[in-house]
User: What shape does this take?
Amino acid sequence: MILTKGLTRIYSLGDAEVVGIENVDLDIAPGEMVVLKGNSGSGKSTLLSLLAGLDHPTRGEITVAGYDLNSASPSELTLFRREVVGMVFQSFNLLPTINVIENTVLPALLAGKTLSESRKKASELLEWLKLSERSNHLPAQLSGGEMQRTAIARALINDPEIILADEPTGNLDSKNGRIVIDLLAELNRKRGRTVIIATHSSLADDPASVIIHLKDGMVIHPEWDR
Ligand SMILES: Nc1ncnc2c1ncn2[C@@H]1O[C@H](COP(=O)(O)OP(=O)(O)OP(=O)(O)O)[C@@H](O)[C@H]1O
Ligand SMILES: [Mg+2]
Assistant: This one.
């Protein structure tokens, strides 16, 4: 599902170069639940951005769900970002002026689906996420846990094969953090999605099938075959 070889992202800041990640080799099978760990600045967000097709590597190979992200055309990349991967962020990134169900259906409408099929799918997701009663609320009228569950609904609306979550519990208390990790684990176990979570928290250690440790942009002692 995910194959990288020598994957490297160096940021240029004027004359200085900062290593984001360096020579990362990954081979992640479909259906894995991967937890990315490492200190602040170790490269977790850099790696997730590359896997999500939001950023380009400085060098190295990267193939995700059959898309060679180095050679993909702009239109293929748009399709990839919209329909193949679903992203969840620490800060939720909901649009503040539209309500929960509108936030959820938006990526489906952008993908060309009809409003009625998109709303039907969104309602099902919101019901699974226990948000049906909040469908017409604006993001500012939600708790943090509800905001993150809305973001999960939005990430799932186009049925992505891969879910990438960057510190999804970072702004949540431990109870809501647990709920979010359990939902991601359920997507992995019951719906067969490949899930990759970057997190400082140990909440995701139990359901993980692979834990990858990053240090200074490099992979150290990955724990395969857990
Ligand atoms: N846009 C950027 N421009 C320059 N340097 C960057 C940029 N983004 C990240 N970096 C640098 O790349 C390195 C890896 O950063 P990254 O954000 O991937 O770490 P992280 O593991 O996600 O950290 P955190 O746990 O704090 O979120 C850091 O040294 C960071 O300063
Ligand atoms: Mg980060």
The chain has one domain: 30-56+71-223. Residues 44-45, 166 surround magnesium ion (ligand 2) (CB under 6 Å). DSSP finds six helices and ten strands in the chain.
